[in-house]
């Protein structure tokens, strides 16, 4: 494989990405791009970002050898990149800090965000409190129901949580509503977008802020096992934790990269959130061209996943490209398999994973037995599962 | 000559301004759309903007979003909308029809087939709000092949160099969004709109229409005094929402007449 250099100056990852926005927001997106390109190489900005990641987020996050889990399933050794140990409990804070620092430099006093599982909303509310900004979080009304603890956390942090009643009442509708807010208030407001999707520069910028995950792992794995892992696995909704892990490894061709999408009730049922695995058609939503779950009329279809953070009909443009150039492979894990992955990590390692991350774990325990004991799988444990207690209890038929 | 150009030239000779109402195809139901289009013309519309329903109308406010949702309950897709235009053209061959919506339904059909169908059924212009000129080169090629006008928005936030790029790509007319925000949002600032419209006129010979925020006869009249065309969207859709199947066409005709009279009183 030759030099990998994406996106281009207009934000294209091959045919994907770009800037598909109404004219009212083009100036805001242009301004964001200019400011980001300026500050990302600014020594003060980089130093402050590194400081916050170390002292506020608690980085570097460790890599943990899940020995009992590996022994139980046999085969490859499973290692976990512990993003669940970050402040606020997920990888989302890496990006939220980065964008908040940019917002501060751009003089924006108000930040908005969309959220699915609530982790990005909590991360945004957290950094807004940390930097003294007003914060409004848009969240699908259905997600407000299934992620009640995170709604309360955001409110404790001083954010206003706006339940979105339109459409499927999930992440995509929260995005629509946040975009509407931004159109109306773009001069005062910075939109802290949570995933590596949306109009340029978001997919690039979110990737860059999340790359700390892969960059750390690239140092930590040789320290632990004397080499890089054979396989890296991460869950993919919009795909920010996965791209943060994958990107530094793209030119390490001996490392296999696997993104795990939400298979929901199974790809055959149509009730899933796996556009890459299900070979969805290319389409345009939320400012970028990506593989997109849609009907024959180009209407976006409602997705299903047990995990609110993966319940999204599109996927970031860079994952679309990585699929097309065969640098990463994408698979789907169904709801019930994800629960099995969740249970396994709880029982064998004393770690309660997020349902999103449980998809990646489930795929790891599926393929580990097919690999030799000398092989190493690194799973990005993108978040912790405290927020999912109600959901898991309900699935198990338990009333809390 | 295209229908859009003919209408603006004729109005210019008469020293009148264009009234361009917007309705969403399939709202409140698919059977009503063509009669409603005729009612708009009877009321004095010079051109019709026909909304193509989309599941995720990010640039629209709640009123037009609800219209999309009502239309989608009837499973109205782009093919149905094109058929409605064909039906409308059976008895009206001179009122321009501009399709307005989002890019994905067109992407799903394919721009080549879409442009060909537009020409077959008599669509005159296409406005896909989330496809700026930079991302539209494939679209241009296909639309140009059939002389369909690509219509673009300009906003209060558009910088001067951005205005240059947009007017270079646009055909038919320029649609100036008179306020920051989604469709149907707050009141507009007329002096600011007048300045911006004058600035756009300095850069193009295309007519300039103003929309987003025209909510009654008084605003329509005021906007008509500074622009070549007045686009009325949310207010029309509100009328649809407040009507029943029996009176919706008549109510739209009446509202259009009121707006027409206000515009012509300048």
Task: Report on the architecture of this protein.
The complex is a heterodimer of chains A (400) and B (266). Chain A has 400 residues and is α/β, with parallel strands linked by helices. Chain A has helices at 26-39, 43-57, 67-73, 92-105, 119-131, 141-146, 148-156, 171-185, 202-210, 212-225, 240-246, 317-324, 335-349, 355-367, 389-395, and strands at 12-13, 16-20, 63-65, 77-82, 110-115, 134-140, 160-164, 189-191, 231-235, 256-264, 282-285, 287-291, 328-334, 376-381. The model of chain A has no long low-confidence stretch (mean pLDDT 96). By secondary structure, chain B is of the alpha/beta class. Chain B has one domain: Alpha-Beta Barrel (TIM Barrel), CATH 3.20.20. In chain B, 48% of the residues lie in helices and 14% in strands. Chain B has a 9-stranded parallel beta sheet with strand order 5-4-3-2-1-9-8-7-6. In chain B, 56% of the residues are buried. Classes of the chains: A alpha/beta (400), B alpha/beta (266).
């Amino acid at each position: 494989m030759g030099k990998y250099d994406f996106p281009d100056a207009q934000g294209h990852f091959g045919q994907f990405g770009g800037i598909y926005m109404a004219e009212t927001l083009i100036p805001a997106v242009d301004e964001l791009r200019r400011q980001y390109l300026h500050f990302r190489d600014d020594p003060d900005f980089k130093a402050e970002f590194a400081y916050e990641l170390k002292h506020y987020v608690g980085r570097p996050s460790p890599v943990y050898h899940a020995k009992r889990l590996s022994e139980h399933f046999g085969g490859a050794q499973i290692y976990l990149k512990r993003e669940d140990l970050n402040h606020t409990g997920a990888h989302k804070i890496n990006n939220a800090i980065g964008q908040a620092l940019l917002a501060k430099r751009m003089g924006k006093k108000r930040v908005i965000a969309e959220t699915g599982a609530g982790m990005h909303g909590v991360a945004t509310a957290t950094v807004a409190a940390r930097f003294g900004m007003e914060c409004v979080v848009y969240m699908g009304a259905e997600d407000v129901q299934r992620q009640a603890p995170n709604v309360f956390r955001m409110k404790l942090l001083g954010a206003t949580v706006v339940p979105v009643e339109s459409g499927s009442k999930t992440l995509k509708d929260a995005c629509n509503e946040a975009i509407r807010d931004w159109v109306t208030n773009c001069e005062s407001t910075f939109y802290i977008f949570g995933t590596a999707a949306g109009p340029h520069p978001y997919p690039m910028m979110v990737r860059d802020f999340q790359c700390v995950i892969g960059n750390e792992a690239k140092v930590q794995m040789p320290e632990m096992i004397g080499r890089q892992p054979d396989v890296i696995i991460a869950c993919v909704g919009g795909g920010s934790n996965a791209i943060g892990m994958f990107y530094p490894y793209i030119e390490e061709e001996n490392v296999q990269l696997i993104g795990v999408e939400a298979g929901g009730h199974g790809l055959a049922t149509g009730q899933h959130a796996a556009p890459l695995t299900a070979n969805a058609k290319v389409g345009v939503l939320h400012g970028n061209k990506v593989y997109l779950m849609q009907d024959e009329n180009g209407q976006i279809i409602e997705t299903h996943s047990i995990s609110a953070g993966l319940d999204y009909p599109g996927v970031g443009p860079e994952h679309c490209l990585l699929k097309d150039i065969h640098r990463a492979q994408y698979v789907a894990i169904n709801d019930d398999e994800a629960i099995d992955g969740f249970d396994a990590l709880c029982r064998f390692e004393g770690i309660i994973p997020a349902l999103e991350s449980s998809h990646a774990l489930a795929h790891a325990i599926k393929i580990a037995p097919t690999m030799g004991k000398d092989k190493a799988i690194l799973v990005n444990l993108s978040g912790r599962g405290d927020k999912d207690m109600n959901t898991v209890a309900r699935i198990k038929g338990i009333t809390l | 000559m295209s229908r859009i150009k003919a209408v603006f030239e004729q109005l210019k000779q008469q020293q009148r301004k264009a009234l361009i109402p917007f309705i969403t195809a399939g709202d409140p139901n698919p059977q009503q759309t063509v009669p409603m289009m005729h009612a708009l013309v009877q009321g004095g519309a010079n051109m019709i903007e026909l909304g193509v329903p989309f599941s995720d109308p990010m640039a629209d406010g709640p009123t037009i979003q609800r219209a999309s949702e009502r239309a989608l309950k009837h499973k109205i897709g782009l093919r149905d909308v094109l058929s409605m235009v064909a039906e409308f053209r059976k008895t009206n061959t001179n009122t321009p029809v501009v399709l307005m919506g989002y890019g994905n339904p067109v992407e799903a059909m394919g721009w080549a087939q879409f442009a060909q169908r537009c020409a077959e059924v008599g669509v005159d212009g296409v406005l896909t709000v989330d496809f700026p000129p930079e991302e539209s080169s494939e679209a241009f090629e296909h639309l140009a092949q059939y002389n369909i006008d690509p219509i673009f928005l300009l906003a209060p936030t558009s910088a001067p160099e951005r205005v240059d790029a947009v007017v270079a790509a646009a055909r038919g007319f320029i649609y100036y969004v008179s306020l920051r925000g989604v469709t149907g949002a707050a009141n507009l600032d007329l002096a600011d709109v007048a300045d911006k419209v004058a600035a756009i006129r300095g850069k193009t010979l295309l007519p300039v229409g103003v929309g987003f925020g025209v909510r009654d006869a008084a605003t329509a009249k005021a906007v008509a005094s500074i622009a070549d065309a007045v686009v009325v969207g949310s207010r029309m859709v509100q009328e649809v929402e407040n009507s029943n199947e029996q009176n919706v066409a008549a109510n739209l005709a009446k509202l259009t007449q009121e707006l027409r009279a206000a515009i012509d009183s300048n």
